[in-house]
Amino acid sequence: MTRHLILHIGLSKTGSSSIQRVLASQREALQQLGVYMPHSPGWANHALLPASLVNDRRALWGFHPATWDGLTPAGRIARFEAEWRAEMAALPDWATRFIITAEQVGGLLRQNDEVARLGEVLGRHFGTVQVVVYLRRQDSHTASAYNQWLRGGVLRDPGLPEGGPETQPELDYGKLLDRFAAVFGQANICPRIFDRAELMGGDVVEDFLHVAGMTLPIPPEAPSKQSNLSITLGGQSLLLAAGRRMAAAGGEAWRDTPQWRRLAESVSERLAGRGWRPTQREARAFMARYAETNERARARFFPERPSLFSTDFSDLPEQPVLAGPNAVAEAAMDVLIYEMGVGAAREGRAAMAQYTLLKRLGDRPMMRTVLIRAVKFAPDLLQARLRLTELLLDDGDLLQAREHAAAAQRIAPDDPRVLRLAKRVAQSEKNQGTTGAGKPASAPAAPSKAEPASA
Question: d(Cα 3, Cα 214) in Å, to the nearest integer?
Answer without folding.
Answer: 16
